[in-house]
Amino acid sequence: xxxxxxxxxxxxxxxxxxxxxxxxxxxxxxxxxxxxxxxxxxxxxxxxxxxxxxxxxxxxxxxxxxxxxxxxxxxxxxxxxxxxxxxxxxxxxxxxxxxxxxxxxxxxxxxxxxxxxxxxxxxxxxxxxxxxxxxxxxxxxxxxxxxxxxxxxxxxxxxxxxxxxxxxxxxxxxxxxxxxxxxxxxxxxxxxxxxxxxxxxxxxxxxxxxxxxxxxxxxxxxxxxxxxxxxxxxxxxxxxxxxxxxxxxxxxxxxxxxxxxxxxxxxxxxxxxxxxxxxxxxxxxxxxxxxxxxxxxxxxxxxxxxxxxxxxxxxxxxxxxxxxxxxxxxxxxxxxxxxxxxxxxxxxxxxxxxxxxxxxxxxxxxxxxx
Length: 370
Description:
By secondary structure, the chain is α/β, with parallel strands linked by helices. The protein has 15 helices and 13 strands. It comes from Bacteroides gallinaceum.
């Protein structure tokens, strides 16, 4: 078995897209490797529960706004996206552990962990880029932040003995174009609940899902409420899943009988499989959207903006409707009509084609060579 030191900036959890991938990756990887885990968490979050004896939690790092500000101030010439989780005490701890234990691989999860790789040039590393920061800040940053991002991301992805992974060939192409670095892609994990969610009885409901403290998601939801909701047929119900909804938005939607805010739900997939569509009005952000992949795996069509579908194969375009304005959103929702039979056929096709790239297989079989 390989020995892996695994650093992630978030609590591994099924409650959010990126953290969910990390959670499921740890489950799968720990079946074939021994893992020492270091993760960050806020005080209001629960502890990570290890699935088996092959995962050992070495350290849980405290996370808070104050701590992130301190980390940022310690690196005034580095963009916060790379420095916000960089802790010198943790670095000293890792250096100490590296002298004691012989790791085969250092796994750095998210761009926020990449800076640690600079201090361990000799060990083999995987840099898991959940988003390509050059693209994310190209859409929302000023010229100075873009310049800093491009410079630092290239520097960190170029660390010796590193292999960069993303979630799509599109992101790989961006990394090659901007930095001249070859990256590899991996698929998301689809759990048993998603695979077993079967379309049987389609209802006049639509679903929005997200981690609502993320501006990308929240801005899209507010836009939907402002611009699209009033244009929908009155019999259409709206289900909203996801935690951390701001109080002012909660107040706004609780008085609308058509909207049901469900918060975090362990298994929303039977509802998703039997709704008219998932709605994804995204106007910023980067990377492949986990919720879109999960909806398609349920046999559910997705109506969204161009950004919602980035990095997803055109093989699945029959169930991905790209719209650009509120009227197109509303018209597509109001007239959506795909039979149960068609949905089941699509679900089967999606599940057969989607899983062909595995980061676990890469780690176990080749480690550093694709």
